[in-house]
């Protein structure tokens, strides 16, 4: 419903035309390759695939397409990850549609557009302290998987998984792996 309403509102802008809408993250790149949009508005948490992963693929496979992340998940870690994935902008959904239309125009003009409050929070939060492998292990632990399950899934030894979990727990200042997962998610690191 939100996607459809947003598309209708943007189509009312004289200089904009919505060329496609997709319901799942794993449809983004294929649809963009087919329709060749100037800009893709992506959310972060989508069924099938994250908008951040799709943004990175768009940067590689369709570099002419700019990416603007529009999400309810205004977390500093997500902002950093979006910028690393090649997004040209990051807005939180609670603003008026006129601001979104203006942001689209600015991104198309070559500017970066970032929600000011989130930019300030990201600067004060500092970088993600977790390594990629620690993030992989925490992501595999999300559903309460055992160390043996995580080791099998990631092709690591159980001792290595324990080491990564211990490091992640220490870096997040938590007491166990599930608290570490929650802290990493809350900060947008996963």
The class by helix and strand makeup works out as alpha/beta
Uncertain stretches of 5 or more adjacent residues: none
Mean pLDDT: 90
- How would you write the strand order of the largest sheet? 1-2-3-4
Order of helices and strands: HHEHEHEHEHHHHH
The gross shape turns out to be elongated
By DSSP, the count of extended strands is 4
The residue fraction in helices comes out at 40-55%
**Major β-sheet profile:** 4 strands, parallel
Task: Give a structural overview.
The protein has 190 residues and is an alpha/beta fold. Helices cover 54% and strands 8% of the residues. It is built from ten helices and four strands. The protein has helices spanning 2-11, 28-35, 51-61, 76-84, 97-108, 116-125, 132-141, 147-154, 158-172, 177-186, and strands at residues 39-42, 66-71, 89-92, 113-114. The mean pLDDT is 90. InterPro entries: CheY-like_superfamily, Sig_transdc_resp-reg_C-effctor, Sig_transdc_resp-reg_receiver, Tscrpt_reg_LuxR_C, WalR-like. This is DNA-binding response regulator.
Please render the helix and strand layout as text.
Layout (H helix, E strand, L loop, with lengths): L1 H10 L16 H8 L3 E4 L8 H11 L4 E6 L4 H9 L4 E4 L4 H12 L4 E2 L1 H10 L6 H10 L5 H8 L3 H15 L4 H10 L4
Parallel strand pairs: 1-2, 2-3, 3-4
Helix pairs in contact: 2-3, 4-6, 7-8, 7-9, 7-10, 8-9, 9-10
């Amino acid at each position: 419903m939100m996607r459809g309403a947003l598309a209708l509102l943007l189509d009312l802008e004289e200089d904009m035309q919505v060329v496609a809408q997709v319901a799942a993250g794993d449809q983004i790149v294929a649809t963009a390759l087919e329709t060749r949009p100037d800009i893709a508005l992506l959310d972060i948490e989508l069924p099938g695939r994250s908008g951040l992963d799709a943004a990175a693929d768009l940067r590689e496979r369709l570099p002419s397409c700019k990416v603007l992340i529009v999400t309810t998940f205004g977390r500093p870690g997500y902002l950093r990850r979006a910028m690393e994935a090649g997004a040209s902008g990051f807005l939180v959904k609670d603003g008026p549609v006129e601001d979104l239309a203006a942001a689209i125009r600015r991104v198309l003009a070559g500017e970066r557009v970032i929600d000011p409050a989130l930019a300030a929070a990201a600067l004060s939060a500092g970088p993600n302290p977790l390594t990629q492998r620690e993030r992989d292990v925490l992501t595999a632990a999300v559903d309460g998987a055992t160390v043996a399950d995580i080791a099998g899934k990631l092709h690591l030894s159980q001792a290595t998984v324990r080491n990564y979990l211990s490091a992640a727990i220490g870096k997040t200042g938590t007491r166990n792996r599930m608290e570490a997962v929650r802290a990493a998610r809350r900060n947008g690191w996963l």
